[in-house]
Amino acid sequence: MSSRYDVVVIGAGHNGLTTAAYLAKTGKKVVVVDGRDTVGGLATGEEFHPGYRTAGVLHDTTKVRKWVIDDLELRKHGLETRKAAPPAFIPQVDGPGYLHFRDPRAAQKEIEAHSQQDAESYRQYRAFLRKISPIFQSLFDEPPAATENLGIADFWDLGKRALSLRMLGKTDMMEIFRIVPMCVADWVNEWFESEILRVAVAGPAIFNTMTGPWSPGSNLNLLMSEILFESAVAGGPAALTSALEKAARAQGVEIRTGAAVTHIKVAEGKVEGVSLANGEALEADQVAASCHPKHLFLDLLPTRALPIQFEQNLLNYRSRGVVAKINLALNGYPQFRCRPDFQPEIVRTGEHIDDLERAFDPAKYRMFSVVPVLVIWAPTVENPSLAPSGHHVFSIQAHFAPYDLEGGWSDARKEEFFEAAMSVLNGYAPGIEQYIVAAEVSSPVDLEDRYGVTGGHLHHGEHAIDQLVVRPVPECSRYRTPFEGLFLCGSGSHPGGGITCAPGALAARAMQGD
Amino acid sequence: MPIPTPFHSRTSELCYSLAWKDWAGYYTVSSYDTSHESEYYALRHSAGLIDMTPLFKYEVHGPDAAAFLSRMTVKDLHKLKVGRVTYLCWCDDDGKVIDDGTVSCLDENYFRVTAAEPSLSWFDRQSRGYDVTIEDSTARIATLSLQGPTSRDLLSGVVNTDMEALRFFGVVRCRLDGTEVWISRTGYTGDLGYEIWVDSNHAERLYDSVMAAGQPYDLLPCGLDAMDVTRIEAGFIMNGVDYHSANHCLIEEQKSSPYELGLGWAVQLDRETFTGQAALRKEKAAGSKRTFVGLDVDWAEVEAAFDKFGLPPELPAHGWRDGRPVYDDNQNWIGQATSGVWSPTLKKNLALAQVATPFAKVGTRVQFEITVENRRQVVGATVVTTPFFNPPRKRS
Q: Of A348, B148, B362, B369, which has the fewest CB atoms closer than 10 Å, so is most exposed?
């Protein structure tokens, strides 16, 4: 049995849906196929215990591109953004804790409780980021610059980019060259004297990456995270997925779940379609893959079809997941000792930069953190309907739990890591275990099995300077691949992972050009 | 510092010239005598014995061995039967040669590959998805090359197999004076000859057996200098001399395709995907810019060039390896000669060269650069077919 489409999109995550919706808008007949039974991939809610739902393996929706929301008219399909993103709470064992607002005015009181001077430094920090952000935004919101086989248009493009950098003035331009490859710890130490503010600012640089705050290059992740910030989606990733799904369907996109792709058909270097696990064949002139690039090329294409250098570059693409996902079903909101009546939506542990580094250290040696760093999202604070009345859900990204754990992941090792994470939480919220109704722990290996992300890496490959400048490998850094008609459109392509919808949208643009 | 080969205890006793050279990290003999002349004549008139252990060897085992080698090299090795050897090269994605060597099919799902360069990582890289194991057996297996017109008769007296039955490019497992060996009818001299492959632990015993059996056949241990003369006479290219592995080249021009090296006959294009296939297809269709040729340098003109300075002509008795420019009649550069030698058997001044394809036709006159008293001279040369020397006994 076979059916014909203009475009087959592999993967119904936020990027796959974005690509599909964009292409369907231009009149293409598009089908999205996903091996899982639900749409949304890492950006969807799931019931992990009867009556308790999460709202996404990924948490952060503040980087969804505004222009994608506008282009796809997602607001018409139910998407709402929040006035302000929820602040992150960093509890302390001895101390009042710190609630990190993005806006310096909102943050002033909280910062002053720790350092008078840092309140002013933070204002300056924000002002500096505002100044440099246009140049970075243009990098993230445009396809990557061509680096091979340059034509006149490419030189024009490179020239424009160089000019916009130069227009910042010599001082700021040199400052950008200086700060991008830095380690984030050094950079925040330059700005701030209070350790808690340093850790609050630096945290996003290391989340979901094989990186500690003292790792060179970690600062680029921070800059990316700061500069891509737009506004949070109400309801989190699950709500975004729902709006994207509606927008795509409204454009006539067919979405098929429970339809795993087993291989991609190519002949004479040209893509012809995909085969599904049920034996069905879908023919198409274009195939866009939002799945992990390693999965696409190393699992779905015939082994012998890849040029050797290309295959080697792919094998070298680093994608070693470091996050275990812990979902807690709670029968109430636990009490944080430093602010007993406060029920924050986002909580991050680690009071010192070196707490983050110490948590990271063992990951290098394929061991998990003794004292994990937790990024906790309680989606029930915004949306109580995810749990029974008065109950709560903690969706936790627990760092660092390396994919290739020495001796391998087993139930016993997961339990051990879970205990370590709980002991961290217990230090801030004593007695939390009495609230726990159920817990689900997923190692990076589990995440790989469940979501098809090679290495269990939630960004579809490490965020590091080399893998962000050319992503994933030189032969397909601009969405096109060595196979005619086959495109990348997921987090493994520019500008990278997290929920931005930018890879999906930029890939669709590249595909329209063909 | 180079290390000794498993034959060192024997070769070092014989090498009274102390003319050693480093070949792939091993001590090997350039010439046992102070001149390689007698060794050359042994190879062409009786028999010579060369320690070839440093030649890189790889054992490829597994159900996918033939498929893997067919993907990696330019030949379809599904067709290679047990007991047969084939010569080939392998390329990168752009169809440029990485290395050349032989592949022997020793058993079902068992091949041995020889290479001029360390190749394990290159092989390994291409083996993803193939059920094979690849072993670098260079140190584990010692190799002797027994070459020359009397080599067959010599071996017939010491092996438990019929040497007449071992055809050109055949390989057989047998015992040589009781030692387990592989014998292949292959070599680098372009003559009747054999290569003997043995477990390194039994290398000395094998050496002694062959030397003893060789006495009535005027067997002489030979060094690499003598072999170099014979391999040029045979028109055999050498990696690092006549071409450079694409992996080491700094610019495109330094790379060569199989077509440019005279190995086009080995390329089997119409089959399952192999590394370099697309690029080689294109080159085959479009034609190659350069072609590999033999040059016969005009002796009278060489003589005259030296005579101008009142000097007798110099014979390149040793193979030379420094590249030399080749020009057309108007002194336009058209290519380079990469190695050459005076052939004592043919009495000719020979060179191997890559020239622009329009000049590759047999009989074309080109100009060849030599240096006399540090001054550049050009002398005439004629494009000729290779092998320069191709005796019927090679295949008999």
A: B362
